[in-house]
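User: Batch of two.

Assistant: Item 1 of 2:
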Amino acid sequence: MSVARRIVTLTGKALLGIVIVIISAYGLLLLVNLNDAEPSTLTYELRQSYESRPAPEDSENAFLVVLGFSALPEDDPLTMGIARRKIHETLLYWRVAIFRVDDSRLPRLGH
């Protein structure tokens, strides 16, 4: 019995130590973030320029080619990427419609 009790005790102490380390790290991150400065106007300008950039044409969008990398050798990766983008957008639509998730901050595929 003493061996089993010792194992349980050591496991409990190890788990308590892990929990304390995680809570301490989280508290440290909160303290660091309390001293953060407000974003500068340059930050807002950079974000605005990024969000207002035009979307690339499908034929020039490398992301769509990457989505189609698993295409068969006789198939076009770009065509498969475009099809997969439509599937992803449909799934995003249903996620928003069913779970009422706010997707206003999600990036649009292909941008």
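Item 2 of 2:
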Amino acid sequence: MLITAAEQAADWSGTAIVIAGIALVGAVVTVAVWQALATARARMTSTHEAELRALADEVRAAQARTATALEALRDELRAERGEER
């Protein structure tokens, strides 16, 4: 039973189609996973940025309170020393 060249070509073309299909499915799955991970990373980043903004607001408020307290202490020391502003 000799296999002719046409039969061999038909076998390879079917195999090539299967390989191309597997490669296409693999590429689609890879892109889908990549996008899902990118979306998750973006969500984590936005949450982290919101936390950092809140922390920065707290720091600004603390800095303002500290500056006010320092001004009050300076004024009190000047008053004790009898200095003018």
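The radius of gyration is 36 Å.
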